[in-house]
């Protein structure tokens, strides 16, 4: 029997509530398939840990996490802890330490989910965003000069290396080739005359190695407009760290809301763990009320199953989410329902059992 070790960082706010339902689903799938087993180890890292210890994770936290096959993250951030601390000392620290340079965010409008656009068919919203996840605008490079003085100057540098840019674009081409879909690059070369000109150049170079993949390239502002006006033109999308972060939140709004937004941080070499997370944030205003939507967490659990090589099981989890949406009986308040977080998780497991048994 295959055994996978999963480090659980439930995190802050609604994180523990939604991650519990994802674990419930993962355990349910594993119990129904005798071919693999999932072992979960919990780590208390997050803003509460910071309040008690003055740091977001143990000093040797990265060494501890390195022993696992995957990390399952609930949410990061809570009032009282500055966002740049919670982000840089936990989430980004994990991504960078484990070279999780591929961020995968599906923007797919499932049946039963709210369709916010007019004159657009449900099947037109089916994108896979592949976001550079290790450098770019989130490299943390820059300077702060003459603090507090009249001539104060702040420099924030985007770092685009040949290695980093080429490997994410090549990963996107391989994905598009495998799936038989087009690939769109999103940049802003007309304004960012070094980084994005370089990005476009590398995209063009790599594209010559994949003549079978249809390509397109858009400026980020035009892409934002076209995602709303004509979303069907986007299939597989590759873009930089910042643009991917922004556009996938727009994508979440197109694909049923932030409660359905899942993300995977992948180390393709598999020499360090990859990390799976809902991307909706910690929502401290509803934490502890038992009404948080766990579907994004459950969707990210399906991404984990895909990563472990159990794509059929991952699809079953997505099918179960879709059936739950179509039934429209067990939904949390953000989806105009009255169900609790745990009731949604229970219903998803019931549907999975009905599919597998």
Automatic annotation (TrEMBL):
The keyword Phosphoprotein does not apply. Residues 5-348 form the Isopropylmalate dehydrogenase-like domain. It is an enzyme of class 1 (oxidoreductase). Keywords: Manganese, Metal-binding, NAD, Oxidoreductase. Pfam families: Iso_dh. Its cofactor is Mg(2+); Mn(2+). One of its GO terms (molecular function) is tartrate dehydrogenase activity. Its EC number is 1.1.1.83. Transmembrane segments: none annotated. The keyword Ligase does not apply. It catalyses: (R)-malate + NAD(+) = pyruvate + CO2 + NADH. It comes from the Bacteria. SUPFAM superfamilies: Isocitrate/Isopropylmalate dehydrogenase-like (SSF53659). NCBIfam families: PRK03437.1, TTC. Belongs to the isocitrate and isopropylmalate dehydrogenases family. This is D-malate dehydrogenase (decarboxylating). It comes from Peribacillus butanolivorans.
